[in-house]
Amino acid sequence: MHNQPTQPGVRVNLAELIEIRHRVREVQLFSTPAKRSPLIGLHHSKLRGRGVDFDQVRVYQAGDDVRTIDWRVTARTQEPHTKLFHEERERPTYILVEQSPRLFFGSGLMLKSVLAAQAASLIGWAALGHNDRIGGLVFGAEQHEIKPRRSKQSLLQLLNRLARANQALSSDAQASGDSFGLALRRAREVLRPGSLAVIICDERTLGDSSEQQLNLLARHTDLLLLPISDPLDHALPAAGLLRFAERGAQLELDTHDASLRQAYRAQGEARQARWQRLAQKLGVPLLALSTQREMIEQLRDHLNAQRPGKRL
Fold first, then answer.
1. Is 207 helix (H, G, I), strand (E, B) or coil?
2. Which residues form the DUF58 domain (predicted)?
3. Exposed e or buried b for every residue in 223-245, given b needs 16+ CB within 10 A?
4. Residues 282, 288: contact at Cβ < 8 Å?
5. Distance (Å, rounded) from C-alpha 85 to C-alpha 82?
6. Contact predicate 219/284, CB 8 Å
7. DSSP string, 64-117
8. Among the ranges given (63-72, 78-87, 108-117, 288-297), the one the predictor scored with the smallest mean pLDDT
9. How confident is the model at residue 36 (pLDDT cuts 50, 70, 90)?
């Protein structure tokens, strides 16, 4: 089922999500010894050079590296002490990606659900290449969780779940309650301090409850926010009478009504502004994506906007 041929931009299959691994080098998401990513705040890369992290102090012993002597403790105790280090553990990267009926929509190059799947795949391959432990949660009509592990198998399981959820989407499917809030609560339960949580969801999913959950999650994990939108989320064309139907309910909008179009645009701008305020308050990167343009192109633009020394 999950490797069946797909219509480009409408659905994705597992093979396509695997293929995205070849494009990781086009975007510098994480820092390496040779290159610093503008998203430097997402990773404790400064420790990666040594591959170790400070642990504790003990009395100096013959053979210890004199460069590790802790002079402050030595002066206080009048006896040489040296710092001990332990190997830095790879960090868990947990990708929360929405695949709900509300994303089964798009007026641009692709549906929002496809853009979300592509972004999750790219970040997953980038994190795996950075020796992180990969896991995540595909949420929408159902929740499918993959525990973080440092193996390609773990990422492939996540991408398989993602492809299956993507192909099960339809416009008449029933959206399930507060699936975003439930997903964020789950992330808070399973993620230990210092993890990276990547949030890929419809721009419209942010409400009071989910914003509160993101505030709580940001207390002990690093966040990367990728809200997904479509041009029609932000502005209505002056196209006369538009009819919308969903599960038997019908709605008619007269798009020649300038006040209606203005109110609609204001709502879209308010949603964008809310994400921006949240990202600034939490001090986390916001990489908003639109179905209007190719995903990697947009990510590159976001990263370039943060060079040099610009930190969200």
1. coil
2. 56-273
3. bbbbbbbbeebbebeeeeeeeee
4. no
5. 10
6. no
7. --GGGB-HHHHHHHTS-EEEEEEEPPPPEEEEEEEE-GGGS--SSSS-HHHHHH
8. 78-87
9. low
Express each pLDDT in 248-264 by its tens digit: 677 777 778 888 888 98
Structural domain harbouring 66: 52-87
User: How far apart, in whole angstroms, are the C-alpha atoms of residue 99 and residue 117?
Assistant: 8
CA-closest candidate to residue 158, choices 198, 131, 195, 194: 198
pTM over 0.90: no
Classify residue 176 by its DSSP letter: P
Chosen domain end from 43, 61, 87? 87
Of 233 and 84, the structure prediction assigns the larger pLDDT to 233
Average pLDDT in the 141-167 region?
A: 93
Pairing verdict, β 92-99 and 241-246 = unpaired
Torsion of CA 216, 218, 223, 227, to 10 degrees: 40
Closest CA to 134 of 111, 152, 161: 152
Report d(CA 161, CA 17) in Å as an integer. 11
- Residue 22's H or E segment, with its range, is none
What is the predicted pLDDT for the residue at 3?
Answer: 47
* Domain CATH code at residue 291: 3.40.50.410
The pLDDT value given to residue 2: 41
Given a contact cutoff of 8 angstroms between Cβ atoms, the answer to whether 300 and 26 are in contact is: yes
Give the separation between CA 188 and CA 126, rounded to whole angstroms: 23
CA distances from 57 to 47, 86, 241 (A): 18, 12, 73
Q: How far apart are CA 106 and CA 197, in angstroms?
A: 26
How many domains is the chain built from?
2
Q: Which two tokens stand for residue 179?
A: 């699936």
Which residue do the tokens 């590790």 mark? 68
Q: What is residue 227's DSSP assignment?
A: E
Tokens 């196209």 appear where? 239
